[in-house]
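Progress against Task 2.4 (sequence-to-structure conversion) is shown through the following example record, which the project officer requested during the mid-term review.
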Amino acid sequence: MAYVAFSASDNVDEQVPIAGVMVKGNDVISTSTIKSYVQSAGFRDGSYIKGNTLITSQRQLLLSDAIQNAEQLAKLSTIPGTSIAPINAVDVQVDTTTGNVVVTVVEDFSAIPLDESVIKNATANHTTVEVNNTTG
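Structure tokens generated for the chain above:
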């Protein structure tokens, strides 16, 4: 779990800039990977909330749609060096008064299919080390 400090800003013309993204619940997938997916949904520096709309440098969309996009994109996060995506649940909460975005993920490794050859290789490469215990 990573902790990030946020700063709040005054509402200027009822526009609230995105202050930052905090990710929690991740064990294996890096925080930066998950944050990059959430930021690609529009929750990044330079974007702001005006009413129920998220306004980015590229588009305007309903805040609820942006949240749904962020949740779907965060599920695409993979374990580095693999194509395994163990995140099966994501909850994105946006504080519309401070601009803080909190992403809670649930990683589920029980749903990952293991190829039988991987299991065979793992047991074939397993070696036993015996230690000579002598008492005397």
